[in-house]
């Protein structure tokens, strides 16, 4: 039985796996994200150590070029991460392994995994949001990731400022106080000097961050009527945060949306495995 | 050659058409929206006067129930419009004509028409926004309207308040100052006592309304990477408004989104015919 490979290419670490299928993983590994040359070489060497793979799926941090007709297909494009702007990912592995490569954003991969194997089984549509170093989202409609011109960049919506959070300027280099600039891990740290889970549970930060994330959920429902919103990533591990987001999103919606009670905001059914499982799902089948 | 019928069921008027196909209309008619019983009867009688149709497509104002397994399928549900809440539309015509009925929101129909025959030919995805008595939107992904749990209600996103528009409370009965509560025709009239096109071109209202509508465009791009955003409806006929929305959306995006230059905000390619053409496209083909 053949092997497929998966790479979840993150800004902090690369998660790697080989398996007979996305649900039959035989080995996993993680490497810290260093320079592109070193990181890609290490990832390739680890995959090679498990024998010949027949296909590889890559879910990458972004922005990425997903246009198969573009010279930049399979590249990370204008990331602020040092060394990684205009960096070829998919082509490196295509050259090395001579196998078909599936390439998409990490969050589109995770959304696919949650829809096929996790919290969104049988859901008509699903969004996967990660709240960590950055904020990103992938959207599944008709069982496929939504691409449009390129891919969603959900962290860059412009939420209403919370009345008790009007001073902080925001940390997004492009939009300052977009969602990522206000509610990502580094944004939380920038104004309160701690992560959300380090702050006492009665600290106003919990209410403020839940309000911003609930605005993303509200907006997703208004624009796409999405059935299941999965919220993962490091910040979402803060005790009580998911409850607060659910509660606040319900307040914002005011029971207006059609099919209102069918909308769900949930934790990842696959836990931390959504990303790597998604990468394996992106591997083209023979 | 057989005939198909189309009904664009609006809160102000019902537009009717019969044709050999969506592009071969042989007769059109409009009737003012009165009580449901009277309006539906008049629509049916006009359609009957043109001979036997083989299928009927209906694009309706909403919210509507689109779940074919629901007892409420084909009904308008919780509209504030007097007399029309919990009103059966599709079932009335199915009973009368004994033909297959296609039923969706008016804006999903218009989006389909603009994608297949209008401003979005060959676009990977398209949103159709109407700004008039209300604000609504439909979204086409993979050549089909996006449904999710039910259908989008794009007018109910929560834009940031413009710095020069902080007093007005908003007119949405559910959310007060959601987009529809701030930027629909009645909301414009409520604070300035005139329509946008009646106000001088240097009146601040133009900048304020453009800012709110640009936030919808920005949010659609962030969440779906949508390629073409078509903006129609009465308010969008205000001279200069589309330009202002394009300009403001570009400012908000700050050239960040991947594939940035491919995103377009345009007027309807089908002009005022997007809705009725969409209704005809919703008619099931034999």
Automatic annotation (TrEMBL), chains A, B:
CDD domains: ASKHA_NBD_ROK_BsFRK-like. Keywords: ATP-binding, Carbohydrate metabolism, Kinase, Magnesium, Metal-binding, Nucleotide-binding, Transferase, Zinc. One of its GO terms (molecular function) is metal ion binding. Its cofactor is Mg(2+). It catalyses: D-fructose + ATP = D-fructose 6-phosphate + ADP + H(+). It is an enzyme of class 2 (transferase). It comes from the Bacteria. Its EC number is 2.7.1.4. Belongs to the ROK (NagC/XylR) family. This is fructokinase. The lineage of its organism: Bacteria, Pseudomonadati, Pseudomonadota, Alphaproteobacteria, Sphingomonadales.
């Amino acid at each position: 039985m053949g092997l497929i490979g998966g790479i979840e290419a993150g800004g902090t670490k690369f998660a790697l796996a080989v398996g007979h299928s996305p649900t039959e993983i035989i080995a996993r590994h993680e490497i810290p994200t260093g320079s592109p040359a070193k990181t890609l070489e290490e990832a390739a060497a680890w995959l090679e150590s498990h024998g010949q793979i027949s296909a590889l799926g890559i879910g990458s941090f972004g922005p990425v070029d997903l246009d198969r007709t573009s010279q930049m297909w399979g590249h990370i494009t204008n990331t602020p991460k040092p060394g990684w702007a205009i960096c070829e990912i998919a082509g490196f592995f295509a050259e090395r392994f001579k196998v078909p490569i599936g390439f998409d954003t990490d969050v589109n991969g995770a959304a696919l995994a949650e829809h096929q194997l996790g919290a969104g089984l049988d859901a008509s549509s699903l969004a996967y949001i990660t709240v960590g170093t950055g904020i990103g989202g992938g959207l599944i409609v008709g069982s496929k990731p939504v691409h449009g011109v390129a891919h969603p960049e959900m962290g860059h919506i412009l939420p209403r400022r919370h009345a008790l959070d009007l001073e902080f300027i925001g940390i997004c280099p492009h939009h300052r106080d977009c969602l990522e600039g206000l509610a990502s891990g580094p944004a939380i740290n920038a104004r309160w000097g701690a992560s959300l889970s380090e702050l006492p549970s009665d600290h106003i930060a919990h209410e403020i961050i839940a309000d911003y994330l609930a605005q993303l959920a509200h907006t997703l429902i208004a624009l796409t009527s999405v059935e299941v919103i999965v919220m993962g990533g490091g910040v979402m591990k803060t005790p009580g945060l998911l409850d607060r987001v659910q509660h606040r999103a319900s307040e914002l919606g005011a029971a207006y949306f059609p099919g209102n009670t069918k909308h769900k905001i949930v934790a990842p059914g696959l836990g931390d495995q959504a990303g790597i499982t998604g990468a394996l799902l992106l591997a083209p089948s023979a």
